[in-house]
């Protein structure tokens, strides 16, 4: 105290300093407390931001992945070639058809299937397609004509592949129209399928007839699916006839002719699909080239293959509203591989590659010119529409 007095401090002044120091200490403690709270709060926020960023990154990753998996507008055929699944040998798959109704069953009789078959595809009357109609009355007329005009002694089975549900009256009227065995085979279980990976929900077709994708399904059916059906495996030759087409005049037994001439295809007249009508149809050439390269295939029919490649804006086809085909062709491994390539390229759904040009290319790849017979050269008449 004496010393402080000596150096000029009074006791009151000392107390004042201490109070000031206490205030400072308390302020400092408050400040540190606030800093601590703020740091904790910041840590919480950083944690939340990190979680949000990680979630965002995960979402972005899956989004990019999903985009990558979407059908590509231009099919990368080289990548296709490298795909591991491509190297697996193929086998004919035989999908069991769940609903078959046959005339034999109707008359409660047993009869062996014929060697060959005449196949139709129709849409049963339904209200959920744009142009709903009942195809069976007209089909009945077609079957009657076949009995009259085709010289096969009315022994060839008829298969009516159909979607939906024919009325009982439609079935009975058909089975009484023809002397042949008739089988009604429901194909709902396959008809509405798409090529693997194709998303019909987010895409619009370049071509629509009846329903949005119906025409594409029809092409897919006649190009590939029909040959995978179990019921088809028992037959040797298949004649396809559309319900809007007909045979005219007297036809000989075309199945006998094709067998005798050791042919594998009976062709209708040549037509073309123009790229400006069917955008993307010419892209089928890329797939064909990649396929030939991969399997080192020299086309068995160079003229037909040249026809595929020599016209810039068009792809040729045989108008296969009517055709006769040796089913053993479609059972060959390399032919099945080609069909699978087409399927996996998704070209049928992306570009509406028709079954007719695809069949033409199949023939160009695997069938000699001498193995193809032509209706016009045989003098066989045909009508469409009729
Ligand atoms: N079940 C079913 N059958 C169909 C459908 N579209 C076509 N078809 C049948 O498939 C066959 C071929 O169909 P079309 O409409 O004649 O097609 P296209 O032959 O390419 O066309 P055109 O050359 O004009 O005759 C016909 O017998 C049709 O009845 C469909 O959406 N569902
Ligand atoms: Mg037709």
UniProtKB/TrEMBL annotation:
Check the record and name the Pfam families matching this protein. Glyco_transf_15
Q: Which domain of life is it from?
A: Eukaryota
Q: Report which residue ranges the record marks as coiled coil.
A: none
Q: Name one GO cellular component term.
A: membrane
MF term (GO), any: alpha-1,2-mannosyltransferase activity
Which of UniProt's keywords are assigned here? Membrane, Transferase, Transmembrane, Transmembrane helix
Give the matching InterPro entries. Glyco_trans_15, Nucleotide-diphossugar_trans
Q: Which GO terms describe its biological process?
A: cell wall mannoprotein biosynthetic process; protein N-linked glycosylation
Q: Which SUPFAM superfamilies match?
A: Nucleotide-diphospho-sugar transferases (SSF53448)
Please give the start and end residues of each transmembrane region. 46-69
This protein's record includes keyword Ion transport = no
Q: Which family does it belong to?
A: Belongs to the glycosyltransferase 15 family.
Name of the molecule in the record: Uncharacterized protein
